[in-house]
Specification:
Blueprint (H helix, E strand, L loop, with lengths): L6 H6 L3 H17 L4 E5 L2 E6 L2 E7 L7 E5 L22 E5 L2 E6 L2 H5 L2 H12 L5
Antiparallel strand pairs: 1-2, 2-3, 3-4, 4-6, 5-6
Length: about 130
């Protein structure tokens, strides 16, 4: 597996369908929260707020889908049996702990039909302090 050093390397290695999904989500994330810093972490685009990674892409999964991981970086203790720190009426988030959730997109249509709830999720997620 290639180790990406830059966003450009990462994007160039994607097929057209995945690149469209990733770029659509990247644009949405950065328009929703322009204060985020974008970089490569875990071999994919990741978004930092106040020194903590908060949203990270995952494309290296068995399902071959685009996932957005909502997390609190490394400083906040995770409770795998705890209730999520955020309410999600859209039911788009699959929670794996109180501070880690995942949004899964199989197609560009999965993204485009959910632009409003995804935007709301990003805003609400980033309003919760990581520490």
């Amino acid at each position: 597996m290639q180790k990406y050093k830059t966003l450009e390397e990462f994007l160039a290695d994607l097929n057209e369908d995945k690149r469209l999904q990733v770029n659509t989500l990247r644009d949405l994330i950065l328009k929703t929260a322009p204060q985020l810093e974008e970089h490569i972490k875990w071999n994919a685009p990741s978004y930092v707020l106040n020194g903590e990674d908060r949203i990270t892409f995952n494309l290296m999964n068995k399902q071959g889908v685009v996932k957005l991981i909502l997390h609190m970086g490394a400083t906040r203790k995770e409770d795998k049996k705890g209730a999520p720190v955020m309410q999600d009426d859209s039911e788009l988030i699959e929670w794996s702990s109180d501070i880690r959730g995942m949004l899964t997109f199989r197609t560009i249509e999965d993204i485009t039909v959910n632009l409003i709830p995804i935007t709301s999720i990003i805003k609400n997620w980033l309003s919760i302090p990581a520490k």
